[in-house]
Amino acid sequence: MRSVLGRKAPESPCSDPRCPFHGNLSVRGGVLEGIVVSDKRSKTVTVEIPRVHRVEKYERFEKRTSRIHAHNPPCISARAGERVKIAECRRLSKTKAFVVIGKEGG
Asked: Domain range spanning residue 78?
């Protein structure tokens, strides 16, 4: 067990080789925070990240969201509606390049 980006490993062990705590997946790059909107796929969650975009022409701001697919290790097992932190890692599949590193609560 090891810590990742200052986070302690979850108490529940897992044997997933793509787990950043119990496996051999290294994380680097960006860390994002968002809300899980879907957990229907096996070991994958869809995280929605809100952001604010400036429209120069009208000198106003608009809300936008990005949806990112992230690997969900069994030791964390995030569910829909939970706020999570995801970290960038190597490409795991065609659409996944992030992994869940922790839950932030309700």
From this structure: 27-105
CA angle, 85 then 41 then 102, to 5°: 15
Residue 11 lies in a domain: no
DSSP class of 25: -
Name the residue type at position 77: S
Q: Is 9 helix (H, G, I), strand (E, B) or coil?
A: coil
Instruction: Give the N- to C-terminal CA distance of the chain in Å, as an integer.
Output: 26
Does an H or E element contain 83, and which?
strand 83-89
Q: How far is CA 5 from CA 23, 47, 91, 94, in A?
A: 15, 19, 19, 25
Residue closest to 102 by CA, chosen among 50, 40, 45 = 45
Contact 68, 32 (CB under 8 A): yes
Looking up residue 73, the CATH number of its domain turns out to be 2.40.50.1000
- pLDDT, mean of each 10-residue run, the chain (106 residues): 73 87 89 95 95 97 97 92 95 95 77
